Structure prediction request, 671 residues.
Amino acid sequence: MATHPKARTVALIGRNGVGKTTLLDALVVATGGLERPGRVEDGTTLGGTDPEERRHGTSLGLASAPIWIGEDKLTLLDAPGAPDLVGEVERALDVADVALLVVDAVTPVTAETRVLWRLAREAAVPVVVFVNALDADHADFDATLTALEDLVGPTLAPLELPLGAGVEIRGVLDLLADEALVDAAGGARHERVPDELAEREARVRASLLEAIVVGDDRLTERYLEGETPDVEALEETLGHLMSAGSIVPLVCGSALRAVGVARLASLLDEIAESRPIPALENGESVLLARDPQADPVLRAFKVIVDPYVGRIVVAEVVAGTLAGDLTLVNSRTGGEERLHGLSYLLGAKLVPMDRAVTGDVVALTKLAHVQIGDYLTRRGRTLAAPPRPVAAPAMTVAVVADAKDDEKVATGLARLAEEDPALRVRHDALSRRLVIETAGEMHLQVTLERLKRRFNVTVGTEPPPVPLYETLTSARDVEGRLKKQTGGHGQFAVVNVRFEPLDPSTPLEFVDEIVGGVVPRQYVGAVKSGIEKAMAHGGPQGFPVVGVRATLYDGKTHSVDSSEAAFEVAGSMALKSALEQSGTVVLERVMEVEAEVPAEHLGEVLTDLAGRRGRVLGTDQDDTDLAVVRAHVPEAELLRYGLDLRRLTGGLGRARVSPHHLTEAPRSMVK
Ligand SMILES: Nc1nc2c(ncn2[C@@H]2O[C@H](COP(=O)(O)OP(=O)(O)OP(=O)(O)O)[C@@H](O)[C@H]2O)c(=O)[nH]1
Ligand SMILES: [Mg+2]
Prediction:
């Protein structure tokens, strides 16, 4: 059997400004991939270099760069820390073997850190903690450890202690190897543990070794016989324990001063095991095995629309080995996708590669139809990402643009949404406005800045149209008649349609009862489409029409003057007269909301829901400090709920929404 080099993916996650992007450069430098690190402030780092990222001094999307340790390759994914962009963290966790949770030694655990920790646990991604910025003035390793123990619990296992503190930081103590790693030009110097730290080191080391050896019977035996297992054996068992979630290793250093960074790289290489990826195969939940010998399976997790290179799809090799040109099938579309050569990303640069193995991340050009979350496999297999519940919108606004820019704005937003699934764009037929949902104020601001820079359009925003609908109140039997004689041949179509109100969750049910070809077969579809268009265009009160059963049972045709277009018009005329005759009632959509909030904020969250005309269905609290509230709330009250809930819960709450039913809207909402 051919041997395959090892490839793993590591997601760097952590709250805003803890030093993830700085650490990415430091890791690449420490492993020989770059001569010197860039500086975030100068925009010279591998990640965070697009103009919006530089302007805001923060990462806004996933950056990626590989590091090599001997033959092994780790692809690092640097996620943004901004709370609005938590979707990017989720996408990194979707494909990562390990999450490197970066905290800083000055303000180690905040609400954002808790949210990220929770996401990694939910995604079942093993976590390594890196305590960064030990060189900072107010760095406090012991306080950091206490805060992290509170977050992580007893599974937290320090593998290192700092050597020195603040500006005096000199290196780290490696507890597994029982030695000091002292910073020196050209790499760390291995030294004896200094006497003044020996007692503490021995104590922490003993409890670490105990925590590791219990994971392996042979090691336990040897340990009880007084033998100390070697570092390799310890690291191997540590890797298994970490993958199982029963140990969360903690290491420390300084990304800025390159302290503990080379050691971090080699540790990740030793302990990162490949993680089976959860997916749906033919609709069933499966865990995809990471087998380099298997048929190739790729999962796209990032799309970049580059002005020069075009569209770049970044995908993880979930299984198999790829070389050269290859044709795979997109599970979502069923269409073939030809891979034209492989590359990887080094920050913003595409670097060609010959071969990719399981665990590699590849950048693919010229794949026009692949979207984030798509699977590419051999024909005959159908894979999909597990569905992710839809987050409540945090900001919903209507876009106001110059009429001449309409098209540019629509294309621009559609492009941006391809790269950014947290941006949702829809067209409101009545107000003729584009309505966008973003994950927060900053996300909205950045979206508008990108629109300006990349598509050269400036837009404003205004409150979105109130999402209301209307339906007819009683059944009507009507005739839609189009008869026009203009010059040559005319337009002729007559349809007789019975309209009845239906459960409004069904937009339209169309029944064809035509016999004897009184409306020719080929025109029946046009009648339906005419009705649909008229429904979207709005009823007499100005809202889209829903909940209609239309039964086409009679009509008339003319051998010369009838056409598809004529029957479409007749269909839409029929709907309009039915609505006028019956009158309409205005409806609003009620959403089912599932909010997860810290138990201490439950009272405020319930009061707030009541203020939104919400009806609470139930609350639940498991053994964590999180409570889950389920409620029915009108859509119109939820346009900023994601953001409001974050504010109400110190950043820790989140809500998911799904449409539930439509009901009569209060009169006060209808102008
Ligand atoms: N003193 C000190 N400063 C650091 C260290 N690492 C990063 N910084 C500084 O912290 C600031 C933020 O660093 P980034 O690397 O951009 O942090 P980030 O986690 O990528 O931030 P976001 O992308 O906004 O989430 C920069 O000014 C860095 O120079 C460190 O180890 N020590
Ligand atoms: Mg960053």
Summary: The longest helix spans residues 195-213.
